[in-house]
Design a protein that fits this description.
The protein has a domain of 30 residues. The chain has 71 residues and is mainly α. It is built from two helices and no strands.
């Protein structure tokens, strides 16, 4: 996530320096980048939970299959 934050800050600085933004535009762009970072964190968390649930489901399936095989 630190790499993503670095890239967002780098892009923000590049856009700001290239276009000499007004304070209002700078704040709007910064707000957009903060929202983007927040969305990325949320998606990362969601994907991690989905992956964990998938592993749990796979383990349950394997154990159920073994139980059925040995009965």
């Amino acid at each position: 996530m630190k790499a993503v934050r670095f890239l967002l800050v780098d892009r923000f600085c590049h856009i700001d320096n290239s276009h000499q933004l007004s304070t209002r535009s700078r704040l709007s762009l910064l707000s957009l980048f903060v929202q983007l970072e927040s969305t990325l964190k949320t998606e990362k968390t969601r994907c991690a939970r989905a992956s964990q649930q998938a592993r749990k489901n796979t383990t349950v399936t394997i154990l159920s299959d073994r139980k059925a095989y040995y009965q």
